[in-house]
Amino acid sequence: xxxxxxxxxxxxxxWAPLDFPDTTTPIxxxxxxxxxGTPLTPVPFPCPEVTVTPPEGVEPPSRMDRLxxxxxxxxxxxxxxxxxxxxxxxxxxxxxxxxxxxxxxALWPRTIVALxxxxxxxxxxxxxxxxxxxxxxxxxxxxxxTPEVVVVLNxxxxxxxxxxxxxxxxxxxADMEAxxxxxxxMLIEQVRAATRAAARAENAHL
Length: 206
Prior knowledge:
disordered N terminus
């Protein structure tokens, strides 16, 4: 990879991080430098920008590839497994898996509506993504997954393993929350007992 040319336009393409000694992987030229060529913060390539100039010899993502990436990222943000997303939208789980794996060539109109509803996207968001834009998230999306569930979802495991681990971590969290609730009730009773004892002691001295 050649050195950065400060006079070149700042496109969103990969560059060697010569100005960032602690960074060894390619960075995005457009995001990592100011318009005058001043180094900013290194941003790994590919960057979050919708339009990315692909490396030489690499085909740009297809319309369905863009949708696959956006749908998976949104599912993870919502803290849902593929099965849970399918159940929420009344969609076949195989359709969700094929979509995220890039094996879905097209979607029926009713599937698009169901998928947008399940992903908590505004109507027309899937078409926006296919056209190279970004989906419109509804103003009050459901709460995202717990930290441990998000870690599992981000691991890219097979769907069955992902579902089993999510179920296990959810059960563990439920057990921990039940234990904490019991401890809180016990502490409340202890405080109430101490308060009653203090009141009795105070009355005895009156």
